[in-house]
Design a protein that fits this description.
Blueprint: E1 7-23, H1 26-35, H2 38-51, H3 62-70, H4 74-81, H5 91-108, E2 121-137, H6 140-147, H7 152-165, H8 172-179, H9 183-191, H10 199-216
Antiparallel strand pairs: 1-2
Amino acid sequence: MSQADPFHFYTRLHLRELTGLKAKNLTELAAHLETVPGSVVYHHTHHFLQQHQYLSPEPPNDFAYWVTEILQDKRLGERLASINTCDFKTIRELREKILSTIRGYLEKAKDLREAPEGEEFHLVKSISFVFPTPYSVSNLEEFAAVLKKITIHSIYFHMFEARIRLEKGTNDFSLWLEGLGEKELAQKIARLDPYTHTMEGLRTKVIQLVENRIRKAGRG
């Protein structure tokens, strides 16, 4: 097994902030999506996971919900809901997919539906504050032990935020395990779809994979 720098666990706090922007129809929504910060797109595609960590996804994104329930456009709503957030490595890519889906629909739309007064889409951004935890680990045994102690907010930060918002391409755990010489374990964790688990379910699955590797190595 290779040596790697210790893994330091972090956690995060998210605050919501209104941008002051709102849309009453799809044209206005698309125009706003072209210019708003990535933190806005992130919020409207991830806040369900942050607020309902113990519920089972898959959650709808806010765009799909508004189009379906407020604009009463179920066809476009289904298209937006079918966008798999896990397929995208960056917020830019996710934003472009949402935009292209809306634009493609607008090109063929015969009439533009508008939200009733008071039901406009209000764009919100997510402000993230990252804090270190007291935990750092140097091997798989320590890693498994700390995974059982940290909060689900820390799990969320290392599994979700690092991958798409911080644009690391994969989760922090897999990056560290690669450096530890645990390529197969890193790949197994990277292949987990975090959007189809609760946060506690995801914690359990990662711990299970790590402990299986420890037993296989004859150290458990």
